[in-house]
Design goal:
With 434 residues, the chain is of the alpha/beta class. The chain is built from 18 helices and 11 strands. It has 2 domains: 107 residues, no CATH class; 293 residues, Rossmann fold (3-Layer(aba) Sandwich), CATH 3.40.50. The strands form 2 sheets. It has a 7-stranded mixed β-sheet. A 4-stranded mixed β-sheet has the order 2-1-3-4. The protein is elongated, with a radius of gyration of 23 Å. Belongs to the CFA/CMAS family.
Length: 434
């Protein structure tokens, strides 16, 4: 009988439609593929095949990897193969001839992938209660992602504790400098001045709030629905001696009712709002801003045209990373803002900046791998490594994922925006003395 590795590689190449520059090693010790392949895949157990047979898309492959049934020596190399990325992202294996799919499935079954579907890794979230994007359901979804332990996020993000795209003014600069530059860019776009009142929706661990209060002299209300974020952000504010200037709340954005604010920052939060709630989100921000007040909305956007209805098919991101998260086209966000009465004045794409940021996070995670495994367990550490690697490649490729900073203003009743006429004037370049 032929060894497992050649038969398995042949089946996958039939599905992909090209020869793969991958070296495969199976549980029986057999190997196949180019000896000098950029990526090496090891299947430790036949159970990896059962996972892929029962979920013949990205979910089956990721379950095999996260559970440890399958290992990859270089995720960047494997996921960087265009045909692999394209096929993994094709949840329904569209374009594969039924006969080809049947032959591949038969080959996998003959290799011993027989039996019921294996139990998914414990870190996978499957059953969710409540109405999509209700307060209770959003709270559970956000907790799944953010309440995994502040110690883990310290390993991943570094001292800045900023979990959003950095602003790399110099590609040779460090992650901390890029995150500091991003916080400053947000503050400058918002036109912050001493005495102003800033609302930070989705404040995370308080880094932007600290930057704005310390360097721009503003009073800040930061809201989050993650208890662990709230607790650490409150502690950081107290340690900085800024408790009289910054208030951190455990509060849903839909419950904020103490406007007006001179400025609103929403950084990495709008992805949790959802298409159905986008008009309400935009109207809420409009109501919370004083006339002439500015909004800076920093959010990931998708480029490919896909159906707007969530839950098209089970995916790695939805089951493991951002349950109920929705990455919408930029046009949907701008349309909602304009319908709510906000005037969009500027947009900046930071796609390449996020790719650099994600690679820096991957480097941090790999550099502290043993600590990460001790902190959150191997399955969750593998989940994050896969997520960050695939995301970096997604932002490096054109026409897949991007991220935008949209600057909008609530106009005065007489139509004035309150913004200087030229960009270089409203952007500014210096921090206020405090």
């Amino acid at each position: 009988m032929q060894s497992a590795a050649p038969r398995l590689l042949s089946a996958f190449e039939a599905l992909i439609g090209v020869e793969l520059p991958v070296r495969v090693r199976c549980w029986d010790g057999s190997e196949a593929g180019p000896p000098d392949a950029a990526a090496r895949v090891v299947l430790h157990r036949r159970r990896a095949l059962r996972r892929m047979l029962w979920a013949p898309d990205e979910l089956g492959l990721t379950r095999a990897y996260i559970s440890g049934d399958l290992d990859v020596d270089d995720l960047f190399a494997l996921l960087g193969i265009p045909e692999v990325m394209a096929r993994i992202g094709d949840h329904r294996l569209a374009g594969v001839r039924p006969r080809t799919l049947a032959r591949a499935a038969t080959a996998i079954v003959r290799l011993g992938a027989v039996g019921p579907p294996p139990r998914p890794p414990a870190v996978e979230i499957r059953r969710r209660r409540g109405i999509l994007h209700s307060r209770s359901r959003d709270s559970v979804s956000v907790s799944h992602h953010y309440d995994v332990g502040n110690d883990f996020y310290r390993l991943l993000l570094g001292p800045t504790m900023v979990y959003s795209c950095g602003y790399w003014t110099d590609e040779d600069s460090c992650l901390g400098a890029a995150q500091d530059a991003k916080c400053d860019l947000v503050c400058r776009k918002l036109g912050l001045e001493p005495g102003m009142r800033l609302l930070d929706i989705g404040c995370g661990w308080g880094s932007l709030a600290l930057h704005a209060a310390r360097d721009y002299g503003v009073d800040v209300v930061g809201v989050t629905i993650s208890r662990e974020q709230r607790d650490l952000a409150t502690k950081r504010v107290a340690e900085a001696g800024l408790s009289d200037r910054i208030e951190i709340r455990l509060q849903d954005y839909r419950d904020i009712d103490d406007g007006p604010f001179d400025a609103v920052a929403s950084v990495g939060m709008a992805e949790h709002v959802g298409l159905v709630n986008l008009p309400r989100y935009a109207a809420g921000v409009h109501a919370l801003l004083r006339p002439g007040g500015r909004l800076l909305n920093h959010a990931i956007a998708r480029v490919r045209s896909l159906p707007d209805t969530p839950g098209r098919a089970p995916s790695f991101i939805d089951r493991y990373i951002f349950p109920d998260g929705e990455v919408l086209p930029l046009s949907k966000t701008i349309d909602a803002f304009e319908r709510a009465g906000l005037e969009v004045r500027d947009d900046e794409s930071l796609r390449e900046h996020y790719a650099l940021t994600l690679r820096a996070w991957v480097s941090n995670l790999l550099g502290s791998w043993d600590d990460a495994v001790r902190t959150v367990g191997e399955e969750r550490a593998r989940t994050w490594l896969l997520y960050l690697t695939a995301s970096a490649l997604g932002f490096e490729a054109p026409n897949r994922l991007t991220i935008h900073q949209v600057l909008a203003v609530r106009p005065h009743a007489d139509g004035r925006s309150g913004l200087p006429r030229t960009r270089n004037r409203w952007l500014g370049s210096t921090r206020a003395a405090t």
